[in-house]
UniProtKB/TrEMBL annotation:
InterPro entries: AMP-bd_C, AMP-bd_C_sf, AMP-binding_CS, AMP-dep_synth/lig_dom, ANL_N_sf. Pfam families: AMP-binding (PF00501), AMP-binding_C (PF13193). It comes from Cladophialophora chaetospira. GO terms for molecular function: medium-chain fatty acid-CoA ligase activity. It comes from the Eukaryota. Residues 412-446 form the AMP-binding enzyme C-terminal domain. GO terms for biological process: fatty acid metabolic process. Belongs to the ATP-dependent AMP-binding enzyme family. This is AMP-dependent synthetase/ligase domain-containing protein. Residues 94-363 form the AMP-dependent synthetase/ligase domain. The lineage of its organism: Eukaryota, Fungi, Dikarya, Ascomycota, Pezizomycotina. PROSITE patterns: AMP_BINDING.
């Protein structure tokens, strides 16, 4: 550190020594100690990626993460690198899927940066908004998405040394012996600094960035490991995007910290393909959104129930062997939940409810509209019966007002979906001079053979 000005606010005794870094030097960070331990001791799969036909262990994963970290460090500008050395918050937008995403995400953390994951289908306008909002210094993308990432460059008003970094050639490097890797003797990455920014659309306006500390990423993973008994041999089938909290912080990172295996499906959902994978067995958890559960049930009812009994039983036995089912992003229709429980011979889907934007980004005096009597106002309406709460919907969009009555669109949808002839339904309010709103529904009918046998 000779010749550099020391910052009293962040001073550490290691600032007086030569910076300890190199191509095989890992950050002195608990997450990377864990991954290094697994690379040394685990022979099981860490990540499987159906779209790329990859099956990698922890040694291969850590090798590729180190290679990606080294490329990022050698590609970004010197000003950006010096800013990172001085513990400034530097963001990197990641556009990748499956194994490539995992490698890029961990590489950013290994460098000490902030990962900003995004959809592989993001539009140029959305990407520009995300780049400006996060003040990203680079986009890290898979070779499949270089064109999409490049589309943001002409319109950018970005950081001075902004660059685009391709993951091309970084996957399946020649495995490195973990014994040759060392840990930095320098300063431990600040656990209070952001490690991740997740963009959420929220309720109104353009997407907002919600920052999560490095420490929270690991602690959340450990808590999931404890609660779900994640350990070597544990496996999850991830069908959710990794730029969503559930996809990344429930389905991916905790499983890797626990030493399990994350299996990525093809980005394009295919119910038949998912069922065929489930039939092979070996899954401990399946986490999805309501639409996925609906389509899996539809495939069961339209295709699999028509198979010979022994073949049909092989599918049902496999789905029933999965220990945990999770659902989030929207309310799961009651009739779907009941059908799934019956199909899985008693195993229920656990529904999650959360607010990504929880935190303290506002001054106390500006939170009046959000917090009342110490409670955070989500805008949802619910009823309590005995010890149970029933979510009626978001007040701004799901509560309809007709003839002086407040009516839950979700309740009406649930009742419509109980009809055996109806596969899907959506309920909306249509402006009406007499009633204020009339209740209207658009429905998709089932195939004739299905409802006749329902």
């Amino acid at each position: 550190m000779t010749g550099e000005k020391l910052d009293p606010a962040t001073f550490d005794r290691t600032d007086l020594t030569t910076r300890h870094e190199g191509p095989l030097v890992l950050p002195h960070d608990v997450l990377f100690h864990r991954l290094h331990f697994l690379a040394l001791n685990s022979k099981t799969s860490a990540v499987k990626d159906a779209s790329r036909r990859l099956d990698v262990d922890y040694r291969q994963l850590l090798t590729d993460v180190v290679a990606a970290r080294n490329r990022i460090r050698s590609t970004i500008g010197q000003k950006t690198l010096q800013s990172m050395y001085h513990e400034e918050e530097i963001s990197f937008v990641v556009i990748a899927h499956g194994y490539e995403f995992v490698v890029a995400f961990l590489a950013v953390l290994a460098l000490g940066g902030i990962a900003v994951p995004t959809s592989i289908h993001i539009t140029t306008e959305e990407l520009n908004h995300m780049l400006r909002t996060s003040r990203a210094s680079a986009i890290i993308c898979s070779s499949d998405h270089v064109a999409r990432a490049s589309s943001a460059l002409p319109a950018r008003t970005m950081e001075e040394e902004y660059v685009l970094i391709s993951m091309d050639g970084l996957i399946n490097q020649t495995p490195i012996d973990p014994h040759t890797m060392t840990f930095s003797s320098g300063k431990t990455p600040d656990p209070n600094k952001p490690g991740l920014i997740v963009f959420t659309s929220g309720s109104t306006g353009p997407p907002k960035g919600a920052a999560l500390r490095r420490y929270n990423l690991f602690v959340l993973s450990i808590l999931h490991c404890w609660s779900k008994n994640i350990q070597p041999g544990y496996a999850t089938l991830n069908m959710l995007p990794t730029h969503h909290v559930t996809g990344l912080l429930v389905n991916v990172l905790p499983v890797l910290v626990g030493g399990g295996c994350v299996e990525f499906t093809d980005p394009k959902f295919d119910a038949a393909r998912i069922w065929d994978r489930i039939r092979l067995g070996g899954m401990n958890m399946l986490s999805a959104v309501p639409t996925i559960y609906v389509r899996l049930l539809q495939h069961w009812e339209t295709v699999l129930v028509k198979l010979k009994p022994e073949m049909r039983e092989s599918y049902q036995a496999a789905i029933s062997s999965i220990e945990q089912f999770h659902c989030g992003s929207a309310a799961l229709p009651v009739h779907i939940s009941k059908k799934w429980t019956k199909l899985c011979r008693g195993r229920q889907i656990a529904e999650r409810y959360g607010g990504t934007e929880f935190g303290n980004p506002f001054a106390h005096e500006s939170t009046g509209s959000m917090v009342t009597d110490g409670f955070f106002k989500t805008g949802d309406v619910a009823e309590k019966h005995d010890r149970n709460y029933y979510i009626k919907g978001r007040k701004s969009i799901d509560i309809l007002k007709s003839g002086g009555y407040k009516i839950s669109a979700l309740d009406v949808e649930r009742q419509i979906l109980e009809h055996p002839k109806i596969a899907e339904a959506i309920v909306v309010g249509v402006d009406d001079a007499e009633y204020g709103q009339r209740i209207a529904a658009a429905v998709v009918l089932r195939e004739v053979g299905i409802w006749q046998n329902a």
